[in-house]
Amino acid sequence: MVHHYAHRLRLGAGLLVLLAAATLGQNSLAQQVPSLDQWKVHDKDRAQPPMVDPGPAGAPAPPPADALVLFDGTDLSHWQTTKGKPARWKVENGYMEVVDGAGAIQTKQGFGDVQLHVEWAAPNSGDGQNSGNSGVFLMKTYEVQVLNSHGNKTYPDGQAASVYGQYPPLVNASRPPGQWQTYDIIFRRPHFDDDGALVRPARVTVLHNGVLVQDNVVLTGPTSHKKRPPYKAHAGALPLMLQDHSEPVRYRNIWVRELDGF
Ligand code: MG
Fold it and tell me: How far is the CA of 133 from the centre of ligand 1 (A)?
């Protein structure tokens, strides 16, 4: 009997701990997900990030030994359309280039937490959002904007290295159009419980041409045009996607290191 009683006590204590953890989890979640209500989406009153000259572009740096190379300048074997068809972007001279109308391309493999290196070059193809627009979509859902933001003004949360519609970069480290630029991105995926409720939002850190521009910011949900939709539960691994925004943006030297979850 004593043994049974002790067992029940332990069970009871365990339940209490679980309940306390669940309550704490809810409270801390409310604090974790920022509303950003002080800024409307694409708010033009937000300050334009100051320009920082990152120095001249260099040759592509070799990937680290444990990286998975997603594009080495020769072929699109790691990529496909969002419908699973062969990717039709142009590959030449060591880079790939968006083909207007070919659609976004995405990796065949899915990823969750990653360190990602991407090099890109944006043409001066128009004004505002139509000047070398593309985008690096983590998990097909969360966009780090690619845009010509050198002498091309747009709403701050939509310029190069912004988390689109949410966070302008801390500074504008853009190189002139046509020059190669780098993103180094550390992304921590969102977590959802079995009922699809958010238990931990996504976070991202971005270096643009080696300059810190996003410092572990907490995403409000998927990135979107003119709205900030809430999180919607999704798998723990989803493809990396590059956007076709109808402008001939180039990419090269794309590699990823999968990070352990925590
Ligand atoms: Mg874009």
Answer: 5
Query: pLDDT tens-digit profile of 27-56?
Result: 566 557 888 989 999 999 999 999 999 999
Q: Rounded to an integer, what distance in angstroms lies between the CA atom of residue 142 and that of residue 131?
A: 20
What distance lies between CA 40 and its chain's CA centroid? 20
149 touches 165 (CB < 8 A): no
Please give the distance, rounded to the nearest whole angstrom, from the Cα atom of residue 147 to the centre of ligand 1.
Answer: 7
Reduced 3-state DSSP string for 172-189 = ECCCCCCCCEEEEEEEEC
Residue 134, SS3? strand
Phi first, then psi, for residue 118 (nearest 5°) are: -135, 135
Exposure string for 135-149, b = 16+ CB within 10 A, e = fewer: bbbbbbbbbbbbbbb
Ion ligand 1 neighbours, Cβ < 5 Å:
133, 135, 243
Q: What is the pLDDT of residue 107?
A: 98
Tokens of 126: 């128009």
Q: Which residues contact 80 (CB under 8 A, 6 or more apart)?
A: 86, 87, 105, 106, 108
* Predicted local confidence at residue 106, as pLDDT: 98
Cα(103) to centroid(ligand 1), Å: 13
As a whole number of angstroms, the distance between CA 262 and CA 110 comes to 18
CB 46 within 8 A of CB 168: yes
**What tens digit of pLDDT does each residue of 226-252 get?**
999 999 999 999 999 999 999 999 999
For residue 228, report the distance from its CA to the centre of ligand 1, in Å.
15
Neighbouring CB atoms inside 10 A of 262's CB total 6
How much distance in Å is there from the Cα of 136 to the middle of ligand 1?
8
Task: With a cut of 70, list the residues of the chain below it in pLDDT.
Answer: 1-31
Q: Can you say how many angstroms the Cα of residue 248 is from the centroid of all Cα atoms in its chain?
A: 21
